[in-house]
Amino acid sequence: MHIPDGLMDPAVWITGWLIALVLVGIALYRIGGKLDERTIPLMAVLAAGIFVAQMLNFPIGGGTTGHLIGAALATILLGPWAAMLIVTVILVIQAMVFGDGGLTALGLNILNMAIIAPMVTWGALKLIGERNRSVGVPVAAWASVFIAATACAAELALSYSLSGGLYGITAALAFPSMMGFHLLIGIGEAIITSGVVLFLVKVSPEMLEIHKSIGQKTTEA
């Protein structure tokens, strides 16, 4: 789902940067100073695992790629604000060190994978109910990937329309390719995320409660 440099209309990628900076700033405000000795190592381990998962990608078409996101698992364990920061750091490293995703498009990549994906996960879990994990976790994980991919397709199509075809990808190609591939990738994300959560329920159920303590601390702030 990484968008490279040179593909997006300047008006679109600049807007993406502005939105991403505001929301990441809010996440930093909500999380800053509220972490403890349990959550910081967990964030680091999650970041490493998600980083590896995202590096295993493949081309979809038009310069974009498909891969697992990992935002759902980070959100389930640490809440949406921490997940935003984890995935943002991963995307920055990938863009600046490995050239995976462009620097101009980094704002859009952060918006799609580090902001939309965690918020969709959190919203789906709240809608279904956290107690009903057997349904909520796979649905939330799948939706996080599919909705983020849909947003990416919309950005590509918007760039194509605004630029008269100079940038982006036509909607007739962007939506079927992005949504079709990520419909299947979302199933993989749901299976992996559900498997990890099921394992944690058996061996370390307290890890699934950490996000509540972070939420209480941010609320108190």
Can you offer a commentary on this structure?
By secondary structure, this protein is mainly alpha-helical. It has a single domain, classed as Arp2/3 complex 21 kDa subunit ARPC3. It is 74% helix and 3% strand. A two-stranded antiparallel sheet has the order 1-2. Helix 1 crosses helix 4, helix 1 crosses helix 5 and helix 2 crosses helix 4. It is globular, with a radius of gyration of 17 Å. The termini are far apart. The model has no long low-confidence stretch (mean pLDDT 87).
Q: According to CATH, what is the class?
A: Mainly Alpha
Mean pLDDT: 87
Specify the biggest β-sheet. Answer: 2 strands, antiparallel
CATH architecture, please? Orthogonal Bundle
Low-confidence segments, ≥5 residues, pLDDT <50? none
Structural class: mainly alpha
Oligomer: single chain
Kindly estimate the percentage of residues that lie in beta strands according to DSSP.
under 5%
Count of all domains: 1
